Amino acid sequence: MKPPLIVINFKAYSESAGERGLALARICQAVARETSTSIAICPQVQDLSWIARQVEIPCFAQHADRFEPGPRTGYTVLEGIKAGGGLGTLLNHSEHHILLAEVDEAVERARSLGLLAIVCANNTRVSATAAALHPYAVAVEPPALIGTGMAVSKADPEIVSTSVETVKGIDEKVLVLCGAGITTGEDVRAAIELGAEGVLLASGVVKAKNPGAVLRDLTSGL
Ligand code: G3P
How far apart are CA 145 and CA 182, in angstroms? Predict the structure, then answer.
């Protein structure tokens, strides 16, 4: 996966479940190929393995638990994500917060398994804390803008630029993504101009009438 990245979080929307999730994944793959851009997806957990086996673009889990495989019920373990064809996982999304110690353990375990961890951060302090764990990427997303269509890169540019500065000051290898309200190529361009190496978004694509058209526009901002 070569940055800049567009990461589409399918969340738990009905528009991205089951067959609709697979159709959306195929659209993401078609646009990635057509535009020669890096588009990764985060399918719903029950569809992850099924979708990962039918597309070639990178598939991430939306969440992972830190536990090792074994007698546990209802958890998503990293080994299971890997066995299912996942390339990595989001961790600590604003809609699925976990304790710092759990993020740390999951990042370490992901690394040892060769999986990529994208740690979400709700503000610059948390971006800094996440960077100190040396994940693959930190994705800064102010919760108040999530799902609003008001792009973080325009409504709160400072959180993006300060996160970039802070994260890179801690570990320049950690990628910085931003998300919340991103829906257009212009939003993506603004994010890149602020130093972000990609975007994480959901509703703008998942709930779009024509996700392919939205994705093409998004890639125009890279
Ligand atoms: O994980 C992506 C995210 O929380 C942003 O959501 O709907 O504002 O693109 P959305």
Answer: 9
Q: Which residue is catalytic, options 56, 79, 93, 134?
A: 93
Are the beta carbons of 28 and 204 closer than 8 angstroms?
Answer: no
User: Would residue 19 show up in a list of annotated catalytic residues for this protein?
Assistant: no
Token pair for 58:
């990178």
Say yes or no to pLDDT of 93 above 90.
yes
DSSP tally for the chain: helices H, then strands E? 10, 8
Backbone phi and psi for residue 9, each to the nearest 5 degrees, phi listed first: -90, 115
Ligand 1 in reach of 147 Cβ (< 6 A) = yes
Mean predicted confidence (pLDDT) in 137-150: 97
203 alpha carbon to ligand 1 midpoint, in Å? Answer: 6
Say what the pTM is.
0.98
Q: Which of 63, 68, 141, 197 is catalytic?
A: 141
In the sheet where 116-121 sits, what is the strand order? 38-42, 5-9, 198-201, 175-179, 137-140, 116-121, 88-91, 60-61
CB distance 181 to ligand 1 below 6 Å: yes
- Range 82-105 average pLDDT: 98
In the residue annotation, 15 being an active-site residue is answered as: no
